[in-house]
Structure formats: C-alpha cells, structure tokens
Amino acid sequence: MDNYKVKDLMVPISEYATVPKGSTLFQAIAALEKAQEEFTGNQYQHRAILILDNKQQVIGKLSQTDALRALEPKDVDLKEINKLSQYGFSAQLIRQLQTSKRLKKGTPLTELCANAVRLKVEDFMQAPTEGEYVDHETSLDIAIQQLVLGNHLALLVTRNQKIVGILRLTDVFAAVFHAMQECHNVTN
Q: CA 154, CA 187: separation in Å to the nearest integer?
C-alpha cells in the first residue's frame, strides 16, 4: 500500500462516461448508463459524466446530483424559500414550504423529465477547481489527504497537464479497506 500511486487506482478517461459540450442532459445520462454497463473494473459504478470541449479536454463534471438538480423547477419562489435558512428557520419548515409550493404548482415528474431532456449539460456541470487535480505519479497517501480535505468524491488525474483519468473516492476506500484487512489478518 505504501508504494501505491494515483495511476495504480485511477479509472482511465477512456473508460469513463464523457460527452461533448452542447450535449443534452439526456445524452449525458445515456453516456453514463453505457459506461456503467461497459465498466468492469470493480463493483463500484460511475457517478458522474465528464464534459469535453472540442479539443477533447475536460471542462466540467456532471454528477448524479447535478442531473437531479436539473429536474428542479426554476421557480423564484423556491429560491426565496431556500433563503429562509439564513434567518434561523428550521430545515423541516423549509422542506414543508417547498413541498407545499411544489404541490400547488402540480408539475408531475414525467413533465419535469420531459423538460430536462433538452437542457444543456454546461448549464448544470461543475467546472473543476484547482484542488480537484492530481498528478498520476502522486502517492496515494497525498491523494487521500486531497480527497478528504477538499471533500471530493473524485479527482481528475493528470499526466503532463493533460487529464488522463479519474481517481474515485470509492476506489481509494476499497484499496484502503483491503489494506486494513491484510493488516488485520497478519496481526491475528
């Protein structure tokens, strides 16, 4: 485990779900589904889609949460309700107000989905921050620190400043767990 490098655990970008900028939310979700069907690296599924520019460079990431957030109606009143938390109102009250507003509006899930399929991924993707990049030669202990301190679910792996893969928290966790098992087996 001490000799592990990021490149030993990363998922190559060729095995990850990617779509070009300008793709619809539906196309992105279809790419994620296809990548999950084809990925055989381990039991953990992909949870995001990478958005590429016309030079095939990663410009953003669309998580499952981002995709679900796209279903949310763009209602000004809901944004105002969400601001109530800054005035000390409880999360429970805010949820009740949101639910009440939603029920009054009455937009069924099928309609929300129908509207969402035409949305563009760049409207919901998250652009990578400086702390989300890690070099492929970085030791795993440093990458773990970066994942934890940045509260990231994944890091974009670079080689010569080009993104070549993804280091996922689930894969790092599995590697650490297996190392713990080995230590436990040796000491018992």
A: 32
User: Span 149-159, mean pLDDT?
Assistant: 93
Judging by beta carbons within 10 Å of its beta carbon (0-12, 13-18, 19+), is residue 176 exposed, middle or buried? middle
Q: CA-to-CA distance for 153 and 67, rounded, in angstroms?
A: 16
Give 138-170 as a DSSP string: SBHHHHHHHHHHHT-SEEEEEETTEEEEEEEHH
Alpha-carbon distance of 48 to 61, in angstroms, equals 6
Q: To 10 degrees, what angle do helices 140-150 and 169-187 make?
A: 120
> What is the helix (H) or strand (E) element at residue 74, kind and residue range?
none
Contact 24, 54 (CB under 8 A): no
**What is the per-residue pLDDT for 76?**
45
In sequence order, the 6+-apart residues with CB closer than 8 A to the CB of 139 are 4, 5, 6
Provide the β-strand partners of residue 32. none
Give the tokens for residue 118. 């035409």
CATH number of 6-68+119-187: 3.10.580.10
Query: Rounded distance, CA 139 to CA 116, Å?
Result: 40
Query: What's the pLDDT score for residue 102?
Result: 63
Domain boundaries, the chain: 6-68+119-187, 73-116
| 167: amino acid identity, one letter | L
Of 111, 134, 128, nearest to 10 by C-alpha is 134
Cβ atoms of 132 and 59 within 8 Å: the answer is no
